[in-house]
Design brief:
Largest sheet: none
Strand content: under 5%
CATH superfamily: ACP-like
CATH class: Mainly Alpha
CATH architecture: Orthogonal Bundle
Radius of gyration: 12 Å
Number of domains: 1
Number of helices: 4
Helix content: 55-70%
Order of helices and strands: HHHH
Structural class: mainly alpha
């Protein structure tokens, strides 16, 4: 799976689940500051990542993910390790 495919899946669920405007969903967007996501939203993201990609995000890993690009990289790297 490419980063572009990962980004597309994440973009879809951010729009559908969190009602984030499409133009705000750019790789450099900060999850909290730019997209307005809160700590409980990260639980939802972890559940969606588990469902969509089969990956389990741990709390300490989530703290290192600050931007959408960080999330894309994390998922991409985990998928390609398998």
């Amino acid at each position: 799976m490419t980063k572009e495919e990962i980004a597309g899946i994440i973009k879809t669920f951010l729009i559908e689940e969190f009602e984030i405007e499409e133009q705000k969903i750019v790789p450099t967007a900060h999850l909290k500051d730019d997209l307005g996501l809160e700590s409980l939203d990260f639980v939802d993201i972890a559940v969606i990542v588990q469902k969509e990609f089969g990956l389990t995000l741990k709390g300490e890993e989530m703290t290192a993910i600050r931007t959408l690009n960080d999330l894309y990289d994390y998922i991409f790297n985990c998928i390609n390790k398998k």
